[in-house]
Structure formats: structure tokens, C-alpha cells
Amino acid sequence: MFTVFTRPEAMKDNHTHYCPGCTHGIIHRLVAEAIDELGLRERTVGIAPVGCSVLAYNYFNCDFQEAAHGRAPAFATGIKRVRPDLVVFTYQGDGDLASIGTNEILHSANRGEKFTTIFVNNAVYGMTGGQMAPTTMPNQVTTTTPTGRNVKEVGYPIRVSEMLATLRTPAYVARVAVHRPHYVVQAKKAILKAFRYQVANRCFSFVEVLSTCPTNWGKSPKEACDWLEQNMIPYYPLGEHKLPDRDEP
Questions:
Q1: CATH number of 24-242
Q2: Domain boundaries, the chain
Q3: How confident is the model at residue 122 (pLDDT cuts 50, 70, 90)?
Q4: Cα–Cα distances in Å, from 21 out to 93, 97, 121?
């Protein structure tokens, strides 16, 4: 008998609290697989702030810290500077990172802090009731934009990966998706690469993951996957947006 599937050691055997069709669980597994494949579990520290990811410590079998809303990069900076031998990652949603914590992630990247951020973009505030987030699509209906996001009044969605990629400081910045199997394969490669850059002490690394939120989008899981494909990917193009240049100071 051959074992073709098993739970990563970096994941606990717990039932999920996420809504049906949510892709947080897929992202958790990809991060855990990367930690296992690189042999990092015993020296890894994860940080989750407020939001749907607040209970991430229930799923990862490694040390974890909980940060105030938006402040995970500050936690990561402190831990990594005090213990540079550790592998540190933040796991953050778009309402957290792209709104409340924008300043934190921007300056952490600009300083070149040697930790990894997994940024889950589902275009809405998830845990707090489905309000408009900085990443909400134009005309997208949310609980605070019942007639759709009006870009003339509130501006366009923020492309965080592109924003960070403009910084001169060396970094690895990529955007992936996990709503179809072939996208999951590419997401795994990007997450592995992000952790490898940290292990090599090369640069700040950042992987944005386009994710579904069927509950707050008011769609079935399949409809949510289709909506992401049709609406988010054209606005949030996938790929590696920044690679560290060895010639940068």
C-alpha cells in the first residue's frame, strides 16, 4: 500500500472554523507543506492578527503569536531582529494588511525586514460582516456598499503587490490564486520561494493570494471561484512582481 496523501506535520489535526468554500484552508496547507519541505517547523514562528485568520494558531503546529489588528509586521520585525535564527511569517487578510496595517507592511518592506508575509486577498472584510475593504472590486456589492463600490467616491482597489514592488529595497513579491488546482500548484511554488529567500537571509518576501469568500459575496463556492476568475484576476494580475536584485544595496 502506498501513501499518496497525508497531513503535513506543520498542521494540527483540528476541525476548520472557516465557512464552506473558503480557501483559507488551502492556503494554510500550502504554508505548512512549505515549512515541512524546508525542514523549518522547529524554528518557525507565525503571527496572525485580527480577522478571519485570527485563529490560525489552531491549525499550525508551530509557535504562534497573535497581534493587534494590522500590527503583525511590527511583531514580526521585533521577533526576527531579536532572534534572526528563527523563520518568521505573518498571515494576514486584506482588511487587516491593506487598510488598518498598510503603514506597517509598507515600512517593513521598505526596511527590508527578513520575514515572510502571506497576504490573503478576498476583496472584502470577512470576519466583521462583509464591509468594503481597500481591495473591494469596482461596483462590488458589500454591506457598506449596497449599490456597489463607487470608485468616484472612494477610489479604486489598492494593488498591494504592485505598490510594494515599486520600493527600491530588495524583496520578493508575488501574487497567486488558489481557486483552481493548477493555480494551487503555482501558489505552492511561490510560497516555497518566499520562505527560501528568508532562510537565505536575502530579503523581505511577500505572497499575495487571491481567495474566495462565498459567505460575504453571497455566492455558492463554485460561483465564488468563477467570480474570482472573471473579476479579480483581470484587475489583480498573477505572477512575480518583484525579484531581489543582487546588485541592489
A1: 3.40.50.970
A2: 24-242
A3: very high
A4: 16, 22, 15
